[in-house]
Amino acid sequence: MSGGHQFWRGKRVLITGHSGFKGTWLLLWLRKLGAEVVGYSNDLPSAPSMYRLCGLEHDGTWVRGDIRDEGKLLQSVLAVKPDIVFHLAAQPLVRRSYMAPIETIAVNVVGTANVLNAIRSAPSVRAAVIVTSDKCYANTKQEQAQGHALQETDRLGGLDPYSASKASAELIVEAYRHSYFQPQLGGSGSGAWPPAIATVRAGNVIGGGDFAIDRIVPDCVRAAQDGRAALLRNPHAVRPWQHVLEPLAGYMMLAEKLFGTDGGAALAEAWNFGPAASQEMTVSELAHRVSGWIGAPAPIVMGDAAGPYEAAMLRIDSSKAHSRLGWQPVWSTHEAVDKTGEWYQQWRQGASMRAVTDRHIQAYEQALAAQQPVQGVDSKDEQGT
Asked: How confident is the model at residue 310 (pLDDT cuts 50, 70, 90)?
């Protein structure tokens, strides 16, 4: 990160969805860097919860509220007076979206519009990072068959309610950016520049602390707790797995640049953050490696099960973040899986999860400072596109 401790020290940051898996990691890292972080969310997303395991549940800087509550959200943003907003709150599960499509759309689309409206009314905000998903792309079967690495300019789409909601959120951000956040429109306060708003599309994140349903790593952990083997729906599916700290480093790097003296307007657009193609791993490979770490029985491969549509291949091209932000992965996929397995192993042994999490953040910072990134970061030339 370009500014590191110097940039973040004293910055007021609002994170929506701070009590979730990714939000907890971001909150702890930003506080380590000296930021004043306030979180906005309605509840803990799971039991167990990483937020609770890290001793944060009774943190006085938690504003309890739902992003669908436009009035409460606006009131909270105006009261917090953040310099930077990270919008992570979401209904994040593909399979749940089939059962609860209206909730998914309300949270992921209307909720995002409410966040943007609040930012529009808040004079303090200079930069915002809106988290969507790599599943916002159409990612056609032809593109999958060709092994196409999706770029930020590729067509948005979605064949399930979750993916469509994230594509819709991207369109909402684009509409607000052009309608309300253009440099010629000026800022909402005394500043000459409006807030710089970017969207980020990360690959599938892993790491300690995720206890959500219908995700590979948490499913393996629950199976280990129950003394049984995890069941794999689509063992041969390939996803861009990466440790949660990888995209978070990119989000923070992007936020620093958006905060720049020129309003960061040139960077107020969409960004991919994913691993190198050489680091890809199938569902089966990931599940077996995690299960080995936590002492679980080997997962049972059920075959490519029938059920709601899920893409067989998902690959994203992060060359834009590499060339324009200087971001690239630090840990290999195997290192990411090992860190993930270690976190859950320590949890099962009763360790202090705040201490374990802090150690992982420190280890990542050290690897980042050593400038030894994983080789093979995707680029258009490397992909032949």
From this structure: confident
The CATH T-level fold of domain 4-383 is Rossmann fold (3.40.50)
3-state secondary structure of 294: helix
Judged by phi (left if over 0) then psi (alpha if -120 to 50, else beta), residue 326 lies in left
pLDDT digits (tens, 9 = 90+) for 327-354: 999 999 999 999 999 999 999 999 999 9
CB 313 within 8 A of CB 147: yes
In this structure, what token pair is assigned to residue 169? 């959120």
Q: Which helix (H) or strand (E) holds 184?
A: none
**48: cis peptide before it, omega within 30°?**
yes
CB 123 within 8 A of CB 188: yes
Question: What gap in Å lies between CA 330 and CA 243, rounded to an integer?
Answer: 9
> What pLDDT is recorded for position 173?
99
Residue 385: what pLDDT? 28
- Measured CA to CA, the distance from residue 93 to residue 214 in angstroms comes to 8
**What distance, in Å, lies between the first and last C-alpha atoms of the chain?**
29
Average pLDDT, the chain: 91
- Over 50: is that where the pLDDT of 186 sits? yes
- What six digits make up the tokens of 188? 């909402």
Cα separation, 286 vs 72, in Å, equals 41
* 182: helix, strand or coil: coil
Phi, psi of 196 (to 5 degrees): -90, 120
Collapsed DSSP state (helix, strand, coil) of residue 60: coil
- Bridging pattern class, strands 238-239 and 281-282: antiparallel
pLDDT in tens, 78-132: 999 999 999 999 999 999 999 999 999 999 999 999 999 999 999 999 999 999 9
Does the pLDDT of residue 372 top 60, yes or no? no
Residues shown for the chain: 385
Kindly provide the b/e burial profile for residues 20-30, where b requires at least 16 CB atoms within 10 angstroms of the residue's own CB. Answer: bbbbbbbbbbb
| The residue type at 133 | S
CA 290, CA 164: separation in Å to the nearest integer? 30
**How far is Cα 33 from Cα 276, in angstroms, rounded to an integer?**
27
CA angle 44, 80, 188 (to 5 degrees): 125
pTM: 0.93
